[in-house]
Write a structure and sequence with these properties.
2 copies of one chain form a homodimer. With 362 residues, chain A is an alpha/beta fold. The first copy, chain A, contains 9 helices and 14 strands.
Chain lengths: 362, 362
């Protein structure tokens, strides 16, 4: 198969599914034709074949290696996205007649709260809804009688991110869909981490769970098999047919990340990209950020034009520069430049150059 | 991208994920590199992009067209496979304090029964467990006070299939994972059909639901959002990020089926393949079928050697002929030649030739 030849150059700022490295796409394409000289496409291979079992095991091992997952934790590749994770996490951690504690930092945290309420009591410890989720609440007390605390570490829609994880006397669960693998984390602080793949891990269609094994099995609930983490662990993440191709592409992407230098190396680049863009947002009199400076997301910077009259000119300008996907989420408006792992610094420079150009012409 | 050039020719009898048409794999590979001249790989495109929304709508429309889905039904592409469907179907149809009726035809039916029991009462109307699931039970009475009857139309592991759907005075639910799109069905008989994609529909990673809309919303249950069919319908099958690539490949495969002449044309070929293989199983004194003749599956013929001493020679023979995937399921042994839609008649002829050759040499 020939190398990638795109018909045009796009700077892909999509909020997710999002940019993946070109070499990952190339290898993914090759596997659609034939996988490892087997005479079969990966799309038509049994998930019980040794070739795919190796893929699954390698993907699980790469998660452990890249995040320095401690002993006693298991890694699973399941389905359903974080939206199923909202329910699954409560199912596996909220005792019958128990309760879950939540911090409401926006749409996805609210989604997790909604699903947990279907199972039992929920205590919302803090919320930033009063200021349209433009900051991360701090200083709340974590109740010792809750079964767990649930956080959404990065808020894709609003552009906020937890930069400090509170110390937590009860089991800590986190939805890390949009910042997992973007910076180093101390997995030992968490009892459960879950993340839809379609940001920094791979294409849409798989969901990673990193779970402390001895935190499980304590709810007294009869859990549906597909949502039962101990059962999924006992089946090596293959209780049923897994999403073969999305897991393979996630594996390729994690290999790419390892070759890049791992999470510390990508964190350095992510910080450089964020510094470049936020620096321009703060410097350029035509723009302003919309969230508390100390809570700004490294993944999803959000900003607005100070003068909405410039909108048409600005939109034309960035589109002509080959930039795609920076319109803000339909629920908040403005702009959101999602800068996931695979986005090169060069693409951020193109965006910043556009902002400078708009200023010159204004 | 160049055409497919396999390193070797394989006759792919995998029980699922299974053979897909070569042209589907080719188009899938191309989409990994660039989708429709967008400058983006399909793997990095937003599911909210008009390009992908078109894919989703086309896939849903093709299901409707190919199966002649009547008005009043909705088609969804969800996640989790049939194993999540076991629970989801009971969640959406079993009233609080109600009950579900089941026919136990083997492993997958038993799985559906297990999940339904987590929600309420289950009545098993009939079972073929007494003869290791080698036939389809008939002549049972369907209780009018059950909320639904659940059937597994084809039993991949044992090789049996419902050739007549009982007339049913209560809502009828069917797991059609391994025979959907293989033969014409009368959708109007069913209130819910669900099927993991990885047999005749596409690669692993998506699950189709075909549901009669006015049969929903009657259980009084607070259903988890991801399992809530009315909610998924209201969001056009995109309550959250769908498995983009598996759905695209399913769409390609359904287009292939349409070009092939649709379900009646593929049924004709499937019947010819089954006649060829079962004919040889019945004729050749070295082999015998293991299920009731009238209940034989067109998709997963199972058979055994009469003389186990021939096993090593037989296994060497078919492997050398490029045949892959005919070892029986680990729970039953023997042989299973899964003959899904994309398997050409030629591959069946190769298998039959091997059987004849074994006979000559015996």
């Amino acid at each position: 198969m020939s190398n990638i030849t795109m018909t045009k150059k796009v700077h892909n700022y999509s909020a997710g599914p999002c940019i993946l490295p070109a070499e990952v796409m190339q290898k993914a394409a090759e596997a659609c034709i034939e996988f490892n000289g087997s005479g079969l496409s990966l799309l038509e291979m049994s998930h019980r074949s040794s070739a795919f079992v190796d893929v699954m095991e390698k993907a699980r091992a790469l998660v452990k290696e890249l995040l320095h997952v401690p002993a006693g934790y298991q890694v699973l590749f399941l389905q359903g996205g974080a939206s199923l994770g909202f329910y699954l996490s409560a199912m596996n951690f909220m005792k019958k007649d128990g309760k879950g504690a939540y911090v409401n930092t926006g749409t996805w945290a609210a989604g997790a709260i909604k699903e947990a309420k279907k199972l039992g009591k929920v205590e919302v410890l803090a919320s930033s809804e009063d200021k349209n989720f433009s900051y991360i609440p701090k200083g709340y007390t974590i109740p010792s009688d809750a079964d767990y605390l649930h956080l959404t570490t990065n808020n894709t829609i609003f552009g906020t991110q937890f930069h400090d994880i509170p110390s937590c006397p009860i089991p800590l669960i986190s939805d890390m869909s949009s910042d997992i693998f973007s910076k180093t984390i101390d997995v030992s602080k968490f009892d459960l981490i879950y993340a839809g793949a379609q940001k920094n891990m791979g294409p849409a269609g798989s969901t990673v769970y990193i779970v402390k094994e001895d935190a499980l099995g304590k709810t007294g609930r009869d859990i549906p098999s597909m949502l039962d983490l101990p059962l999924q662990i006992s089946k090596d993440s293959m209780y049923n047919t897994p999403p073969v191709f999305p897991i393979y592409v996630a594996m390729l992407n994690l290999e790419w990340l390892k070759d890049f230098g791992g999470v510390p190396a990508i964190q350095k680049r992510n910080e450089a990209k964020a510094a470049l863009l936020y620096g321009e947002v703060d410097r350029n009199p035509l723009f302003k950020g919309v969230v508390a400076t100390e809570d700004r997301s490294l993944m999803n910077p959000t900003f607005v034009l100070n003068d909405e009259a410039l909108t048409a000119r600005w939109d034309k300008m960035w589109k002509e520069a080959g930039i795609s996907g920076i319109a803000g989420h339909r629920s908040v408006g403005g702009y959101r430049a999602s800068m996931y792992n695979a986005l090169p610094l060069e693409s951020v420079q193109v965006l910043v150059n556009c902002m400078k150009e708009l200023e010159k012409g204004a």
